[in-house]
Target: 4-hydroxy-tetrahydrodipicolinate synthase
Amino acid sequence: MLSGVYVPLITPFDAAGAVARPALEGLAHEVLDAGAAGLVALGTTAEPGSLDQEEQEAVVDLLARVCRERDAPLLVGASTPTAVTALGARREVTAALSLVPPFVRPGEPGVVAHFAALAAASPVPLVVYHVPYRTGQQLSPETLRRLAALPGVIGVKLAVGAIEADTVGLLADPPAGFAVLGGDDTVISPLLALGAHGAVLASAHLATAGFVELADAWRRGDTNQARELGHRLAELSAALFAAPNPTVVKAVLHAQGRIPAPTVRLPLVPPDDEIVHAAVERLAAVSGASAVAMR
Ligand SMILES: O=C(O)C1=N[C@H](C(=O)O)C[C@H](O)C1
Model:
């Protein structure tokens, strides 16, 4: 079952605005070196809607090669029958990360029917990407359990924006063989405390070892370490999400010299300098105060 911290890699661009493949490869190895359980290609953080087909394929090709070299799991953002079918030829792909249909607001029976059909068509397992503030579609615990019972659905990336009673109930009695991965960076520590199996965190491009240690500490029951580290990392995530993701993450990676430019593509625009400075300072505070070597 999926577990640990997965990093949904940004798409770095060079000074000319093209995908900076060497930088992407470097980031992939860096986060795996720091203990990330696996990678996500074409997550929200990758700005997939701003990449053309060739760029998307180049990103998946590169990250699939890295995951093959590192024997690491790879999730790939893919939400249509055509997109998931295209993953069949890629043996490195562990699962598709498939968005609850956005904007349409089909209702919960429609969501279940959608994922039943998508899973039946998919050559790879599915992780349901549930992010209602982006999709406009809420899902009850009962519906999440119905999704978990679908053949081929192996988990959920849960990004409901808070720790809700429904979330507590789901984690009190999680469906067997169904991974619950947190997708809300600022509340990932309490979600792990409740028993989430792991996380998909844009924040984990930075202080990667800290986020890995956070998940490990909650898993082994080291509550003092987990609680203290969780508070500090939550402050870092809040700073990294003070402007639309991944604008701040990219700016900090550029400030660290890890990517050639902080460029984001429209409709995203660079964050205010003050936001970037605050995130850099928060990262330094987290890194400086931690016994866990962080970058
Ligand atoms: O790229 C992702 O996957 C994530 N996207 C979330 C979002 O921006 O809504 C944030 C999370 O860190 C992972």
